[in-house]
Write a structure and sequence with these properties.
GO molecular function: chloride channel activity
Structural class: mainly alpha
Membrane topology: Multi-pass membrane protein
Helix content: 40-55%
InterPro entries: CBS_dom (IPR000644), CBS_dom_sf (IPR046342), Cl-channel/antiporter (IPR051280), Cl-channel_core (IPR014743), ClC (IPR001807)
Main location: membrane
CATH topology of the largest domain: Clc chloride channel
Largest sheet: 3 strands, mixed
CATH architecture of the largest domain: Orthogonal Bundle
Shape: elongated
Strand order of the largest sheet: 7-8-9
CATH superfamily of the largest domain: Clc chloride channel
Subcellular location: Membrane
Length: 451
């Protein structure tokens, strides 16, 4: 369900019941296939009860009080600020990569350099911070001794050497007192910078788990701070605030609400905490939108992919279809020469052509090949009732037609109902909304011809 909502909220510019069913069916099939593979991997083939790859452990006794709601809202604001900072730094870094790191060997060198820096700083942190805990209180599956004495393990090394999923689970479920302030603070700072650098590398690194782990680190820090300030309060649980921090950090980065709430509920197995998660995600989105866009929207713009937003650009009522359309319209007659059709298909990059009744005869073309002399009746193949708009139609009207009907092309006609232009998704995607510090405007982008 989380995957279906994610596709709806972020990946689709057109939605209908048929598409919902296809995505849901694909999600169910992929979950079944994953269960078959996991059951075979664990030595129990056919036992289709595994929770999947994204499982952060179930919160058995998690509750919240009315007086905690302002804390959740404040954590959502912090997540929005951290997410907007993440997006800004990553945007600058991605632009630098697109300009200067274009050769293959440079991309490999960059990935190796980032890995080496991460390993160096991680080892420096593990060696320099003394965060040893007794083994009998070890909440991790594979404790690491490092420089600790016999019978102790290093809590810092456990966070670094575990898989990121296991580290998230530790921050969610470790008992109070399992981590030090300085350990989590430095880990949060290093992992935040590391996740900024890795997203956009030529090596697939992902975004969800690094953002969740970063948010869980500062969220648990917030819970530990509350425990120190309110030592006698039974409602303060560091793991609970780690979950809220993870949601706020991820929501402030990707700017999604509904799908992230469902995904985190599915990954933690607790539906009673949906309201706090939704509050923090909404605040993170509102706060982050003041400064910049979500990370996916930023990379879509950088990649010049023509994906339409949910709403038409504001302040665009004075932009008309005649300004948006492509004037170089190639039309076909209702009965056309095969040779002319082949020449048009070879000469034009697009694949949508208005078919019109000719008002004047086309100039005679001297064709020697027998096939080029054949004619084809286009009427059985064409859409005889296409959607059209007047050249004076506004950009919001054209945008809503594309968004609601899932169009690929829209013919523009003049007052005499003659074809004067054609609008495609690329033409609409050029008009992009920018937001910064509470201000907004409309700008025109360059859309790639390969999109």
């Amino acid at each position: 369900v989380g995957g279906v909502l994610f596709s709806l909220e972020e990946g689709a510019s057109f939605w209908n019941q048929s598409l919902t069913w296809r995505i849901f069916f694909a999600s169910v099939v992929s979950t079944f296939t994953l269960n078959v593979i996991l059951s075979t991997y664990h030595g129990h083939p056919g036992e289709l009860t595994y929770a999947g790859l994204l499982n952060f452990g179930k919160f058995d006794n998690i509750s919240y009080d009315f007086k905690e709601l302002p804390i959740f809202l404040m954590m959502g604001c912090i997540g929005g600020l951290m997410g907007s900072l993440f997006n800004h730094i990553n945007y600058k870094l991605t632009v630098f990569r697109m300009r200067y790191i274009r050769r293959k060997w440079l991309k490999v060198l960059e990935a190796a350099l980032v890995a080496a820096i991460a390993a160096i700083f991680g080892f420096i942190m593990m060696v320099s911070i003394n965060d040893c805990k007794p083994l009998d209180k070890d909440p991790t599956l594979f404790p690491i001794q490092m420089h600790c004495s016999d019978g102790d393990y290093s809590a810092v090394a456990a966070i670094w050497f575990q898989t990121p999923e296991s580290s998230v689970k530790s921050l969610f479920h470790d008992p109070p007192g399992s981590h030090k302030f300085i350990s989590l603070g430095i880990f949060f700072l290093l992992y935040f910078l590391l996740s900024v650098c890795t997203y956009g590398l030529s090596v697939s690194g992902g975004l969800f788990i690094p953002a969740i782990l970063t948010g869980a680190a500062w969220g648990r820090l917030a819970g530990m701070s509350l425990t120190t300030m309110l030592p006698n309060s039974t409602w303060v649980d560091p793991g609970k605030y780690a979950l809220v921090g993870a949601a706020a950090q991820l929501g402030g980065t990707v700017r999604m609400t509904i799908s992230l709430t469902v995904i985190l509920i599915e990954a933690t197995g607790n539906i009673t905490f949906a309201f706090p998660l939704m509050l923090s995600l909404i605040m993170a989105k509102w706060t982050g939108d003041i400064f910049n866009e979500g990370i996916y929207d930023i990379h879509i713009k950088l990649s010049q992919v023509p994906i339409l937003q949910w709403e038409p650009p504001p302040l665009s009522n004075k932009i008309y279809a005649s300004e948006v359309m492509n004037h170089a319209v190639v039309v076909l007659k209702t009965v056309e020469n095969v040779g002319i059709i082949v020449d048009i298909l070879k000469a034009t990059p697009h694949n949508g052509f208005p078919v019109v009744d000719p008002c004047t005869e086309r100039e005679k073309v001297n064709i020697t090949e027998e096939e080029r002399a054949f004619t084809i009746d286009m009427r059985p193949f064409m859409n005889q009732s296409p959607y059209t708009v007047q050249h004076s139609a506004s950009l919001p009207r054209v945008f809503r037609l594309f968004r609601a009907l899932g169009l690929r092309h829209l013919t523009v006609v003049n007052d005499a109902h003659e074809v004067v232009g054609i609008v495609t998704r690329k033409d609409l995607a050029r008009f992009h909304v920018w937001r910064h510090a509470g201000r907004m405007g409309v700008e025109q982008l360059v859309i790639s011809d390969d999109s």
